[in-house]
Design brief:
Layout: E1 2-3, H1 7-18, E2 23-26, E3 43-47, H2 48-56, E4 68-70, E5 72-77, E6 83-87, E7 97-101, H3 102-114, E8 119-122, E9 125-133, E10 136-143, E11 146-152, E12 155-157, H4 164-168, E13 173-189, E14 196-201, E15 207-211, E16 217-224, H5 228-233, H6 236-247, E17 254-255, E18 261-270, E19 274-275, E20 278-280, E21 286-287, H7 295-311, H8 319-348, H9 354-367, H10 369-379
Parallel strand pairs: 1-2, 1-12, 2-8, 5-14, 12-20
Antiparallel strand pairs: 3-7, 4-7, 5-6, 9-10, 10-11, 13-16, 13-17, 13-18, 14-15, 15-16, 18-21, 19-20
Helix pairs in contact: 1-3, 1-7, 7-8, 9-10
The structure holds flavin-adenine dinucleotide.
């Protein structure tokens, strides 16, 4: 039983259905793109491994037409020399990843969910209480037709950052408030983005520009929390001036900003991934800074690993399977969380003494072939012991 049908919960439900496993998915929002909290205007950078995984579970065919390939990634820090550049061709692939608005991925997931044959979907419906059983959980759910109770041998918390499942299981979490707000909107650059994604770090926080369809770009601008109200109140011309100052002129003049969406940023990490007959996936397990573009990528690897292990086990949710799950996810989870947190801390710290070290590190990752390969492989989402579904499939 999956609680939460967001990007990760829905992907897991589809993967289980594809593996021939019966499941129930409970989602608080009605099954429409505009109503689902994370099927919104954020632009997702999907790693190559993620697209392989979405393809393997039959979602990508509904999304591919709206996606834009990322052929080149360019990382810099304002005021310092050195940069890291990753190029798809140099690593023998057509794209390092793809960008896709979350609402388009949401629409593709909903279409694929409609094709599922073994899955029972309850939406809008909300988990309100859990009761432990000898070999599972009794879940009390409020639906539009009244209360329901459902017994399950495995409870999956895919209910996001403020996870009710995590709280009910008594799993503690570690929180870190970045004191930053992220603004997301589209812009039109003067020059063609040519499939380039940019990430630029500065004392005031990182800024990213992602290639989108129709020559548009997705802008992600981080500001200190205390400046968020003032930035939200800027008119379009003043906002573009600020974005241009922060990002620079690599794509020429930026214009026509779309509607701005603010997101306060925090990191929330569950202290355990599993409990008796229960497991956390996606943001319920770990919510990380969005600037590294890893949250859904990591959460999908949670979901696909869980589906793979469940398909190999007669009793999904037994202790040995859950222990194996936690072991399989450890390296990827810890590595991705450490990288994303460390990147923000290190790349945005203003200390001038760090500047030469940072520049040298950038040069090393840019020029030393084994470091480049490592960075490219990780950037494409091949980390730890990946689920089989994300690996490259030979034609
Ligand atoms: C601005 C921004 C940009 C991002 N960019 C990227 C990116 O480029 N690449 C990337 O990989 N990731 C990115 N992310 C992260 C990504 O969006 C998240 O990691 C992802 O949405 C997590 O999915 P989830 O399903 O775990 O949680 P959510 O999407 O939060 O879904 C949780 C679901 O659970 C439901 N729910 C909650 N409680 C209950 C209950 N009691 N009963 C029933 N249902 C319940 C909610 O309604 C919700 O639909 C970004 C995030 C932000 C904010």
């Amino acid at each position: 039983m999956i609680i939460g049908g967001g990007l990760v919960g829905a992907s897991l439900a589809i993967a289980l259905d594809a593996a021939g496993i019966d499941a129930v998915m409970v989602e608080a929002a009605p099954p429409r793109v505009g109503d689902q909290p994370s099927y919104d205007e954020r632009n997702l950078a999907l790693a190559r491994a993620t697209v392989n995984g979405l393809d393997a579970i039959g979602v990508w065919k509904h999304a591919a037409a709206q996606a834009t390939p990322i052929r080149h990634i360019h990382v810099t820090r304002a005021g310092e020399f050195g940069s890291v550049q990753l190029d798809a061709r140099r690593h023998g692939v057509d794209a390092l990843g793809w960008t896709l608005p979350a609402r388009e991925l949401g629409a593709a997931l909903l279409r694929r969910l409609d094709e599922c044959t073994r899955l029972r979907r309850l939406a809008p419906a909300r988990l309100t209480r859990l009761e432990p059983l000898a070999a599972g959980w009794r879940a009390h759910v409020e639906t539009v037709d009244g209360p329901l109770s459902i017994d399950t041998p495995l409870l999956v918390g895919a209910d996001g950052t403020t996870s009710f499942v995590r709280e009910q299981l008594g799993i503690a979490n570690e929180r870190y408030d970045y004191g930053q707000t992220l603004f997301v909107c589209t812009v039109t650059p003067e020059r063609d983005h040519a499939g380039r994604a940019y990430e630029r770090f500065a004392d005031s926080g990182p800024v990213a520009v992602l290639p989108l369809a129709g020559r548009r770009c997705g802008l992600v601008l981080t500001v200190p929390r205390e400046e968020a109200d003032a930035v939200a109140a800027l008119d379009d011309a003043a906002f573009i001036t600020m974005a241009q100052e922060r990002f620079g002129w690599r794509l020429g003049r930026l214009s026509r900003p779309g509607k701005r969406h603010p997101y306060p940023i925090q990191r929330v990490a569950a202290e355990a991934l599993v409990a008796a007959r229960a497991v956390l996936v996606g943001n319920a397990a770990q919510t990380i800074h969005p600037i590294g573009a890893q949250g859904f990528n990591l959460g999908l690897r949670d979901a696909l690993t869980l589906a793979e292990l469940a398909a190999e086990t007669a009793d999904p949710g037994d202790e040995a399977m859950l222990a194996r799950y936690a072991e399989r996810r450890a390296a990827d989870r810890e590595g991705t969380m450490a990288m994303s947190h460390g990147l923000i801390q290190l790349a945005c710290l203003p200390q001038p003494l760090l500047a030469p070290l940072r520049s040298l590190a950038m040069l090393a990752f840019d020029r030393v072939p084994p470091l480049q390969r490592l960075l490219a492989r990780r950037g494409m989402g091949f980390r730890g012991e990946p689920p089989r579904a994300v690996l490259e499939r030979l034609p």
